[in-house]
Design brief:
binds magnesium ion; disordered C terminus; alpha/beta; disordered N terminus; 6 strands; binds guanosine-5'-triphosphate; 6-stranded mixed beta sheet; 7 helices
Length: 224
């Protein structure tokens, strides 16, 4: 019978839905110019792809909401950082409070793979987890729908990741929608595991605001 154990008046207790835990995680997407960072984000968030290339200026944002499980909602705040920013001095501001990163290279241009270590170094020198360890970073070998430039085989890539401090790597294609969800899921698993080990206020939904002007958000450490 519907009434038994229900929330009707006079039963002395009221039914409440199970508490849902909500996280807001800031994730960086970095790598050389034209490797496909914006395309990966567009594919992941909007299921869209365009051949048209328009370079990102500075930084762009996107939000992906993931119903992780019945008790967990994850909001991923994706920071799409322009490839040319590695030569500027703004990355320290952009990286602040990030808890994960996707480092992208283009399999058709070997030079973008060579730059991966520079991006990783830039990342590790400017942002750390509250416990002092590097933020988890996943390496994406993007444009795998095209012919490769270079000869890294999977075991060499595994070794490169171990030595370079990446938690893993995926061959991706924003064009053909290959491995993008999988790579993001793998990163979020790691971010969540870190969060459970070291819960902190930084990824508390109420604290991390998506500010369209990161300069204003960090005026103390700014210089022009
Ligand atoms: P910046 O903003 O300049 O740093 O570049 P980006 O890394 O954001 O690159 P973007 O996503 O704008 O992509 C650059 C070009 O590569 C565009 O013409 C895309 O259509 C193309 N592209 C991106 N991903 C793929 C892919 O997986 N396969 C193929 N074939 N082309 C891709
Ligand atoms: Mg871009």
């Amino acid at each position: 019978r519907a009434g038994r154990g229900g929330a009707g008046p006079g039963w002395g207790w009221a039914w409440a839905p199970p508490r849902c835990r909500e996280h807001l995680f800031k994730v960086l997407v970095i790598g050389e110019l034209g490797v496909g960072k914006t395309s990966i984000i567009k594919r992941y968030v909007h299921q869209l792809f365009s051949q048209h290339y328009r370079a990102t200026i500075g930084v762009d944002f996107a939000l992906k909401v993931i119903h992780w499980d019945s008790k967990t909602l994850v909001r991923l705040q994706l920071w799409d950082i322009a490839g040319q920013e590695r030569f500027g001095n703004m990355t320290r501001v952009y990286y602040k409070e990030a808890v994960g990163a996707l480092v992208v290279f283009d399999v058709t241009r070997g030079s973008t793979f060579e730059a991966v270590s520079k991006w990783k170094h830039d990342l590790d020198s400017k942002v750390l987890l509250p416990n002092g360890s590097p933020i988890p970073a996943v390496l994406l070998a993007n444009k795998c729908d095209q012919k490769k430039d270079g000869s890294q085989n999977p075991s060499q890539m595994d070794q490169f990741c171990r030595e370079g401090g990446f938690i893993g790597w995926f061959e991706t294609s924003a064009k053909d929608n290959i491995n993008i969800d999988e790579a993001a899921r793998f990163l979020v698993e790691n971010v969540l595991a870190n969060y459970k080990r070291f819960p902190n206020e930084e990824n508390d939904v109420s604290k991390l605001k998506l500010d369209p002007d990161p300069l204003r958000a960090d005026s103390k450490s700014q210089c022009c």
